[in-house]
Design goal:
binds adenosine monophosphate, 316 residues, binds tryptophan, Tyrosyl-Transfer RNA Synthetase, 3-stranded parallel sheet
């Protein structure tokens, strides 16, 4: 039996943090043997916010290095960037035409941006449909993501159903894959870790950066267990050892933070070193991405041909 298809992506819109890792990337790595995996860099999505050439180029390379450094193996995974697969944007347009405005207006990401009284660009408004195209064009069975992306997967499912209803069975209905224990990794202030809140611990932080971030974790003064420290520590230490430590050091916030710094450093050090080595070989790393894009297009061009026929634009 052939393997099921897994697909997921991350936007190259800034420095990745441990929330991205535990919420999403770790699953990409852990599942790469089990699934026929497609992992990509959502560069066209990030264009909704990153509108500077140099920054975008750097961010794309950074996400690629991050993927490889955490252990994605290009022999097992098709690693590519979204803009190398133009069939995706073509499909997104077709989805635009079968989707209503009020339906997209219900998207949480759009509502958030709108509430902040930002002038929302059309790309951001349309974000869920480009994402639906990413997923559906690859016939993905499962999409590993953090909790905040759940609604987007629902949009993809609804869009697949709608297309299938109008033009006949074409797209698979994808399932989200969300690990409850890490669905929402908290940041240093206890809210969801997010680059927009400035409460992150970068995935490839230096020792100094780890120290600074951990020392900045907001601790409440009630009780012996500093909740925000504990919740982050959980990601890096096995439950038994963690509880022993927090029982022994009850009330000693500084000691607990120092222990957390060492545990994060032990985790990050090897991947940080691997990343530095990879960065020295930029050409080879970019070649992996380019080849991945070509590989991804085999499937997407087949799929878009089928779609073009079904909707009635393929006359020759
Ligand atoms: P983004 O940085 O929004 O492109 O997110 C990339 C991936 O990381 C998505 O699957 C998110 O759901 C996931 N993610 C981002 N922040 C967190 C968090 N604090 N906890 C869990 N998953 C997260
Ligand atoms: N929206 C996702 C995020 O911010 C990135 C993304 C774009 C994605 N297309 C996707 C994730 C398709 C999974 C599948 O994290």
């Amino acid at each position: 039996m052939s393997k099921k298809i897994l697909l997921s992506g991350i936007q190259p819109s800034g420095t990745l943090h441990i929330g991205n890792y535990f919420g999403a990337m770790k699953q990409f790595v852990d599942l790469q043997d089990k699934y026929d995996s497609h992992i990509f860099i959502a560069d066209f999505h990030s264009l909704t916010t990153v509108q500077d050439r140099k920054t975008l180029e750097e961010n794309i390379l950074n996400v690629l290095l991050d993927y490889l450094a955490v252990g994605l193996d290009p022999e097992k995974v098709t690693l590519f960037k979204q803009s190398d697969v133009p069939e995706v944007t073509e499909l997104a347009w077709i989805f635009n035409c079968i989707t209503t405005m009020p339906y997209l207006e219900r998207a949480v990401a759009y509502k958030d941006a709108h509430m902040k009284a930002k002038e929302v660009n059309v790309g951001l408004f349309d974000y869920p449909l480009l994402m639906a195209a990413d997923i559906l064009i690859q016939d993905a069975d499962v999409v590993p993501v953090g909790q905040d992306q759940k609604q987007h997967i629902e949009y993809a499912r609804d869009t697949a159903e709608k297309f299938n209803r109008i033009w006949g069975e074409t797209f698979k209905i994808p399932e989200p894959l969300i690990l409850e224990t890490v669905a929402i990794v908290p940041g240093t202030d206890g809210r969801k870790m997010s680059k927009s809140y400035g409460n992150t611990i970068p995935l490839f932080a230096s020792y100094e950066e780890i120290k600074k971030a951990v020392m900045g974790i907001v601790t409440d003064s009630s009780g012996g267990i500093p909740k925000n420290v504990y919740e982050i520590h959980k990601l890096f230490k096995e439950q038994g050892a963690l509880d022993t430590l927090y029982a022994e050091k009850a009330g000693k916030y500084k000691d607990l933070k120092e222990a957390l710094i060492e545990d994060i450093e032990a985790f990050i050090k090897p991947i940080r070193e691997k990343r530095i080595a990879l960065a020295e070989n930029k050409e080879a790393v970019l070649a992996i991405l380019k080849e991945g894009g070509q590989k991804a297009r085999v499937k997407t061009s087949e799929k878009i041909t089928d779609v073009r026929q079904k909707i009635g634009v393929a006359l020759y």
